[in-house]
Design brief:
alpha/beta, single chain, five-stranded mixed β-sheet, 7 strands, two-stranded parallel sheet
Length: about 130
């Protein structure tokens, strides 16, 4: 994470960063990203992408969060909807299938494109709450 985010921040200093609640301080402490470019969000929060008619929505996901040994679920986990004037995109992030899929679709769909994560789903009895099964 850190190498990729740091490189992006250096190469694109004017990028707006939309991040889950609890993540903004980490981003500012560990990269060159400045505070006015960071938009910390909670579920269902909507932000306008500066200078555009594009809306970024932080939507729910079903997963746990862990950055170190003793910080279980200290930061919010989620997905993102990007809503334009004529197109809609949903990025599922890292999630298991849950009721939020239906809620997101009802509130912001239909989507023209969706990136739904599939992987690390076996054993299914254990992983189905964190990862989508094909």
């Amino acid at each position: 994470d850190l190498d990729s985010v740091s490189r992006l921040a250096k190469l694109q200093p004017n990028t707006s960063w939309f991040v889950p609640a609890g993540t903004a301080q980490w981003l500012k402490d560990n990269t060159v990203v400045v505070g006015d470019k960071v938009h910390e969000m909670t579920w269902w929060q909507e932000e306008q992408l500066e200078g555009t008619n594009i809306k970024i929505v932080f939507t729910p996901a079903n997963h746990w969060c862990k950055r170190s040994v003793a910080d279980d679920n200290q930061m919010l986990w989620g997905s993102f909807a990007v809503i334009g004037q004529t197109k809609r995109f949903w990025f599922g992030g890292d999630t298991g299938y849950c009721e939020a899929f239906k809620q997101i679709g009802e509130k912001y769909g239909p989507f023209d494109l969706a990136a739904i994560p599939i992987g690390a789903y076996q054993p299914n009895w254990f992983m189905k709450y964190q990862h989508v099964h094909p």
